[in-house]
Amino acid sequence: MLEIRDLEAAHGDIRVLSGVSLSVGPGEIVALLGPNGAGKSTLLNTVAGLLRPRRGTVTFQGEDLHQLHAHLIVERGVALVPEGRRLFGSMNVEDNLELGAFAARARATKAAGLERVYTLFPDLRERRRQLVRALSGGQQQMVAVGRALMSSPRLLMLDEPSLGIAPRLVRSIMDSLVEINRGGVAVFLVEQNVQAALGLAHRAYVLESGRVALQGSGDELLRDPHVRRAYLGPLAMHQ
Amino acid sequence: MTVLAQQLVLGLLIGGLYGLAAAGLSLVFGVMKVLDVAHGELIMLGGYAAFFAVGLLGLDPFASLLVVIPLSLLLGVALYWGLFGFVVRADEETRVKNSLLIGFGLALTLHALAVLLWTADERSIVTPYGGAVLSVGTLSIPVIRLASLAIAFALIGGLHLLLVRWRWGKAVRATAEDWQAALLTGIDVRRAYLLAFAIGTALAGAAGTLVTIGYSVSPSIGLEWTLKALIVVVLAGLGSMLGTFVGGLLLGVAEAASAATFGGPYREVVGLVLFVVVLVIRPRGLFGR
After folding, report:
1. Interchain CB contact of A52 with B (< 8 Å)
2. How far apart are CA B217 and CA B118, in angstroms?
3. What is the per-residue burial (b if ≥16 Cβ within 10 Å, else e) of B60-96?
4. How far is CA A46 from the centre of its chain?
5. Which residue from B241, B235, B248 is spatially nearest to B282, judged by alpha carbons?
6. What would the pLDDT profile of A20-78 be if each residue is shown by its tens digit?
7. Percentage of chain A with pLDDT > 90?
8. What CATH number did the domain enclosing A178 receive?
């Protein structure tokens, strides 16, 4: 469904991705792991169209994405929940969600989309008229996921959804991703919380210094000595 | 005492126009992160458009708004496509610098063009009800300026509703807050920029019309109005059109108060003092986000 071939991207003169190839299949949950600065966010931003690749291709359902403007990529069914949530703080919950359905394709199903988000995150229904600034980090993350869902994506990408969120809520966000995935949406997840990510991912890639260093099923990577040492900490070695 | 009150009322009346002039500048700067220093020249063009709409078409001065506002919208679209649409392709820091260069260039060009076409003479619109005055106690309020204040307020209110209720209005606000997040929700931010610039130019045209009706227009009024608008934008802060309008009223009243207290020459100084004080004490402005 999503095919990334030989992708190279840079911030100014600094090359961040050097020849990354990976794929996400329909209905899959794929995790992308790796240390800070490995290029994970850059990869997601490039797929979403915020950054133009220097080389390589990104195709989605057979169509090239790397030439398209970001707003058209949303229209094609690829949505990104960006790092740090990036909500519209001066607007209320429902305005944020409704803006998520701005693309023409999603506008027709806006009412159904809202209902779907409120069913997934009942907390938000009660707070629909509150400014998102006033919400907790976890609730804000729910709005961010909900806003992306409002575009009725076929592929949902998330950049560190657990960042700065209480552990109890991390759990509920991760559960919601499984729920979303059951509805037929492919999920591509960048996460520092390796345990949580590998717990729900069908497959995972490890990105190091702008290259794919490792790949495999979630279970395989959880058992991999390098992954355990580098990402799960020394204690995990003895578990 | 009556003299002071009279001065303050007149200050309030011109303050409404400051607010209207600043609203367009604030919208463009807030959304595009582009500082359009030719905003005053756009006000000047609006003034001439009104002058000729009244002179050639025989329209009532206030009805000329119905001609000037659509024309200004079109001018805004043309300027965006021809000039400012290129500026927004750069990153945000470069944008402000480039927009200053382009804005000053545009301002000089429009000023020279206006002198060439219409001479440097001051012109004003003469209306049958021009001298009408509303007497409230010992105060006398010029009817034309009162009507201008009401229209300015109505336009700002309309703009506020547009930004709060309309789908694209929300898109414009979203773009102002975080253009990348706006892109990720599927908003074509270039179109939001175009919309903001066109509406900003239309507001300049409306302000120019009211300035010409209540006062006068000449090719050189542009710089003064750009400065007033800038002061109000700093005073009020970005993000609220109603706040900008109130900021304009405040500047008008403050100018009148200082002119009445210290004498006419100090009218301009108070705006600049306010500018510095607000920047030092509350850099995001009185009503800014």
Report:
1. no
2. 11
3. ebbebbebbbebbbebbbebbeebbbebbeeeeeebe
4. 13
5. B235
6. 999 999 999 999 998 888 899 999 999 999 999 999 999 999 999 988 999 999 999 99
7. 71
8. 3.40.50.300
8 A C-beta contact, residue B237 and residue B286 = yes
Cross-chain residue pair A69–B178, CB shorter than 8 Å: no
* Matching CATH number, B2-281, of 2.60.120, 3.40.50, 1.10.3470, 3.40.1000: 1.10.3470
Task: Select from A86, A100, A102 the Cβ nearest to the Cβ of B180.
Answer: A86
Block residue for tokens 């409704």: A98
The arithmetic mean of pLDDT across residues B200-220, rounded, is 96
The tens digit of pLDDT for each residue in B99-136 reads 999 999 999 999 999 999 999 999 999 888 888 889 88
Which token pair is B16? 């409404």
Interface touch B185/A151, C-beta < 8 Å: yes
The confidence score (pLDDT) of residue B232 equals 95
Cβ contact A99–B184 (<8 Å) = no
Handedness of CA B188, B191, B195, B201 (dihedral sign): positive
